[in-house]
Design brief:
The complex is a heterodimer of chains A (246) and B (119). Chain A has helices at 6-10, 19-26, 32-76, 85-125, 134-152, 157-182, 188-211, 214-237. Chain A has one domain (31-237). In chain A, helix 3 (32-76) packs antiparallel against helix 4 (85-125), helix 3 packs antiparallel against helix 8 and helix 7 packs antiparallel against helix 8 (214-237). Chain A has eight helices and no strands. Chain A is mainly alpha-helical and 246 residues long. Chain A is elongated and about 70 Å long. Chain B is an alpha+beta fold and 119 residues long. Chain B has a single domain, classed as Arc Repressor Mutant, subunit A. Chain B has six helices and three strands. Chain B has helices spanning 6-21, 28-40, 45-52, 56-68, 91-106, 111-114, and strands spanning 42-44, 72-79, 82-89. Chain B has a three-stranded antiparallel β-sheet with strand order 1-3-2. In chain B, strand 2 and strand 3 form a beta hairpin. In chain B, helix 1 packs antiparallel against helix 5 (91-106) and helix 2 packs across helix 4 (56-68). The chains are: A mainly alpha (246), B alpha+beta (119).
């Protein structure tokens, strides 16, 4: 890796001078190796930008899951006496929709960035470590959705929670897939977030099946949420090395 | 992915020549800026300074060239940290970016790229 682009070493570093002077000193026909080198530098330096964007993703979903668990207690409990059942329901649905839409928007932005990074990496290195597993991911997600519909058809709160948790276990694969497409290698907070997400969903499933307890289900998620907020803070403020940040 | 044949390689190099014959991409710094903006859609001036290792004057010159060609759009946005100069890629810039990716994909595999992804 060179310390700078080829033209930068000969480029004028002054504010003065005509554009023509600069053009003659700077511009030249780009060689294929320079294009490859530019793509490599883009990938290397873009890693910092990506980590900052993923920080927003972890924080958005951490906040959303926190709201899913806390809002029913906050709005339905005696701590807010002014909220009537009707107002409480409207507020509850509105807030849940708000945080969910916010988290989905952040997800779309981050996944889009991951896909564009992946396309550039594939064009540069001709290597796709995830291609052979794409079909498995698709089958797993379809299986999770089918399982969710089957369980939901029993129409009980317990079954609904179980369906959501079972779906989330499989959706971890989706998260890992996008992390893998965005980064090579996946940073430590990416592994921590996906592992905690999987463990929280799996532990939640087990607690529901073994104990039938919704409280245990909530505690299982609490750890996951804390790890996600920790991952968000580390990705946002942690060291990024020789990478660009915005 | 199979390496391109020699015919495809020649075609690729011809395509590359066409891409870079235009004034706005006759500089590796501008190609670097275009690739980065193609991926990120928006980058701040400071980030571009770090990315390109250019001085402020040189970077301004490169950004003006790209803006003049309609490939990017410069603007000032207000953030909690104060006003920031940012560059956004335009529709025309995205078309050019896709062309660059296509050329990159069609380039013959060199020893350094055949090894695989970076460590």
């Amino acid at each position: 890796m060179t310390s700078g682009t080829r033209d930068e070493r000969s480029a004028p570093q002054v504010e003065g001078g005509s554009d023509r002077d600069r053009s003659e000193a700077v511009d030249h026909t780009i060689a294929p190796d320079e294009l490859r080198e530019s793509a490599r530098r883009t990938l290397q330096f873009g890693r910092g930008v990506l980590r900052r964007r993923w920080a927003a993703y972890y924080a958005a979903w951490g906040l959303a899951v926190t709201c899913y668990f806390l809002l029913p207690d906050l709005l339905g409990g005696p701590s807010i006496p002014l909220v009537t059942p009707l107002e409480g329901t409207a507020l509850f649905v509105g807030l849940l929709l708000g945080v969910t839409l916010g988290a989905l928007t952040v997800s779309l932005v981050v996944f889009g960035l991951a896909e564009r990074t992946f396309a550039l990496r594939l064009a540069t290195y001709r290597s796709n470590p995830f291609r052979s597993r794409d079909r498995v991911f698709r089958y797993a997600i379809v299986a999770a959705l089918v399982l969710g519909v089957v369980i939901l058809s029993t129409r009980s709160t317990f079954a609904a929670l179980l369906a959501v948790d079972a779906t989330l276990v499989v959706l971890t694969l989706f998260l890992i897939r996008h992390l893998g497409r965005a980064f090579h290698p996946v940073p430590i907070e990416g592994w921590a977030a996906s592992t905690s997400f999987f463990l929280a969903a799996a532990a939640s499933c087990v607690s529901l099946l073994a104990f039938g307890s919704e409280t245990a289900h909530m505690w299982a998620w609490l750890g996951g949420i804390l790890v996600w907020f920790g991952c968000a803070a580390y990705a946002r403020f942690g060291p990024v090395g020789n990478e660009v940040t915005t | 992915m199979a390496p391109p044949s020699s015919g495809a390689a020649t075609e690729s190099l011809a395509g590359l020549g066409e891409q870079f014959a235009q004034e706005e991409l006759r500089s590796s710094a501008r190609v670097l800026i275009m690739l980065s903006l193609g991926v990120n859609h928006r980058l701040g001036f400071t980030a571009l300074l770090v990315l390109t290792h250019c001085g402020k004057g040189s970077l301004n010159y490169h950004l003006k060239q790209l803006e003049g060609a309609g490939l990017i759009r410069m603007s000032t946005v207000f953030t909690f940290g104060g006003p920031r100069v940012v560059a956004d890629i335009t529709e025309k810039g995205q078309v050019r970016y896709r062309g660059l990716i296509e050329e990159l994909r069609r380039l013959p595999v060199s020893e350094s790229t055949a090894v695989g992804v970076p460590s």
